[in-house]
Design brief:
Blueprint: E1 13-14, E2 20-21, H1 23-39, E3 44-49, H2 55-63, E4 67-73, H3 76-89, E5 98-99, E6 113-119, H4 127-140, E7 141-150, E8 153-154, H5 162-174, E9 181-182, H6 183-192, E10 196-202, E11 208-213
Parallel strand pairs: 3-4, 3-6, 4-5, 6-7, 8-9
Antiparallel strand pairs: 1-2, 7-11, 10-11
Helix pairs in contact: 1-2
Amino acid sequence: MKRKTPEGASFAEATQGAQLFAPSAARNLAPIAAEIAIVAPLEGTALEIASGTGQHIIAHAKAHPNIHWQPSEIDEDRIASVNSYVQGSNLSNIAPAMELDATAQGWGKKAGYDLILLSNLLHLISAQEVETILKEAAIALTQGGRFMIYGPFMRGGVLTSEGDLNFHNSLQAQDPEIGYKDDLWIEKTAQAAGLTLHRKTEMPANNPAFTFQKP
């Protein structure tokens, strides 16, 4: 389903043409890229779920030229932004953005990815939608493929900062089905989907990164 993005959750400003610029994406790009450098394959295919403005995947494609990158989005304006960045990059290892609702069942059957990336989405969707993403990603990955997830989470059921508590409460006030997911629940749910935890890293801004692997 296409769930309405909560207020204050995903700010991006227009720049040139269809391109959008998200300050938060610019801030978290370096630590995410550093983690990808550790977990990504030397070559293969990669899918980015919810590519947003397109800022991240352009940087990833430049840093990993032997990986073919597939951006995806559900929002028309963001698809246009991603494609504008792609066209301006002159990179041959990145495809135009495809429309993908990763919370819908069935998309994993059409894939075969060595790496899947997802940043800053799980707190904006329901627990049931998270379960669907994990199940479909497990189907979509090749054997040994990895799924890296970055974003804000509870730690053992606890919101560990005042900012996280306020943001979580704001999200739930707009939609009681969404909000921060628990880190231990994510690990358990991924395992139930057929994935194993390969790596868990504490990142800046109090956000962890999980990398799950398909055995």
